[in-house]
Amino acid sequence: MPVEHTxxxxxxxxxxxxxxxxxxxxxxVWFEVARTELFRSMGMPYSVISRKxxxxxxxxxxxxxxxxxxxxxxEVAVRVWASKVxxxxxRLDYEVTKLPGKELLCTGHTVHVLIGEDGKPKAxxxxxxxxxxx
Length: 134
What we know:
By secondary structure, this protein is an alpha+beta fold. It has helices at 26-41, 46-52, 126-133; strands at residues 4-10, 55-56, 59-66, 75-85, 89-99, 103-113, 115-116.
């Protein structure tokens, strides 16, 4: 079973539009928060991956399907998990729900490619591959 992580957030005023509804692009920021915490929970914060291991994980694809609106001061949960681990790429899936009832707000995914300092794709290291699929 793939590893997953859930990040809980409260909608800030700055994330909303004039109607106090969350602006659509903020969901991608929330995806990043959950993704960062997923890697941290596996003992691999991005600072270690980039500085000590010498590679980066740029987003090469991002997608979101919006189901319902979140509003200022709502509490939301952003769940993330690895749905596909390729040779040098990784797909992460997301589900955003409003708490406490877990009303589905958004689903989506991002695809990342591991690249070295030279900007060229690198194979996903065996230890990371294992942690993502445990």
